[in-house]
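FAQ

Q: What does a record look like?
A: Structure on top, sequence underneath. For example:
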């Protein structure tokens, strides 16, 4: 078992490595039981059709998922962020991902490197290996943005230096932004932006204005990418913590270089909500997938969906989005093949 630095890291390492002998079969078992319990897949089962399509080399899938604090937080109210996400919740998150089998996984609220690495290993032991990955660590020391991919990352930019004025203070973008270029094949690449904007929790500087300012900075990064390569395929995913008509969404969607399109996936019952507020008993859509019109041409709405799974309520307050794309001839015109991103350990 490798030695890691802090007491909390050593504790996580002991727990994680003690499970390594059995966690793979358990995840497989959980995923299989869930599928069998829902009925044997057939041609009329949307999840079966989706899984079959994403195994096809002609398509690829992207899942965006707020995994609900997959990290150490102050869960017992003692003022110390020392309690890891409970194991039943961790198992539910992994079961949902394993059932969907996404090619690319964009996560919000992932933990520090030792948690992220353990998460990747557990998926790999269950048969879902992501050799390419990135983690953005920003001033919020507990929850981070992460990316896992079966496809090579041609470039990764971790935007952690953005700041803005809110009231009388200067604020950093709390979670930063993750920008990555992914090579699906030599003929198709796209630029992926992953974000989690300021939550609706009270802040003296004003949570609404803070979210709008973060959206403005995200839009600047998207616009810059478009100006550098006008023919770039662009996909923006994440937790925007606001409604589709709110200023942050309008700011990001109207990037000035060809407005982004709300892909608006839905579940098999036609429902688009991604968040449930138990206190207010309200269903809301806070998680989005926005694409430049050039990338929309490859989008398969018939195979994409808001993931409906029996373990959703256990895993996270949010439902993940699963997006399927089928690149067509000519989609990659003007792209230059770049050296692969030097993968971090």
């Amino acid at each position: 078992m490798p030695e890691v630095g802090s007491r909390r890291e050593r504790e996580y390492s002991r727990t994680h490595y003690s499970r390594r002998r059995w966690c793979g079969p358990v995840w497989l078992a959980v995923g299989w039981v869930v599928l069998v319990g829902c009925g044997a897949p057939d041609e009329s089962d949307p999840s079966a059709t989706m899984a079959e399509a994403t195994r096809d080399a002609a398509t690829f899938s992207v899942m965006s998922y707020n995994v609900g604090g997959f990290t150490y937080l102050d869960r017992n109210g003692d003022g110390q962020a020392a309690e890891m996400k409970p194991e039943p919740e961790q198992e539910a998150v992994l079961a949902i991902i394993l059932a969907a089998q996404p090619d690319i996984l964009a996560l919000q609220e992932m933990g520090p490197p030792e948690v992220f690495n353990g998460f990747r290993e557990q998926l790999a032991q269950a048969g879902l290996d992501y050799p390419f990955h990135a983690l953005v660590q920003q001033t919020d020391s507990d929850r981070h943005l992460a990316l896992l991919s079966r496809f090579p990352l041609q470039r990764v930019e971790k935007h952690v230096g953005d700041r803005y004025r809110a009231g009388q203070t200067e604020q950093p973008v709390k979670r930063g932004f993750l920008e990555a270029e992914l090579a699906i094949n030599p003929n198709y690449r796209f630029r992926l932006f992953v974000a989690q904007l300021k939550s609706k929790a009270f802040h003296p500087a004003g949570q609404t204005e803070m979210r709008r300012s973060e959206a403005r900075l995200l839009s600047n990064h998207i616009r810059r990418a478009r100006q550098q390569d006008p023919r770039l395929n662009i996909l923006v995913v994440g937790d925007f913590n606001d409604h589709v008509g709110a200023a942050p969404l309008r700011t990001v969607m109207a990037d000035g270089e060809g407005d982004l399109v709300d892909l608006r996936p839905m579940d098999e019952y036609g429902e688009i909500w991604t968040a449930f507020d138990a206190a207010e008993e309200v269903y809301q859509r806070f998680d989005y997938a926005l694409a430049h019109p050039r990338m929309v041409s490859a989008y398969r709405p018939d195979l994409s969906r808001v993931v409906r799974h029996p373990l959703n309520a256990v895993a996270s307050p949010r439902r993940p989005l699963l997006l399927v794309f089928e690149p067509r001839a000519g989609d990659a015109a003007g792209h230059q093949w770049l050296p692969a991103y030097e993968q971090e350990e």
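Q: Is there anything notable about this one?
A: Confidence is low (pLDDT under 50) at residues 1-7, 12-56, 333-337.
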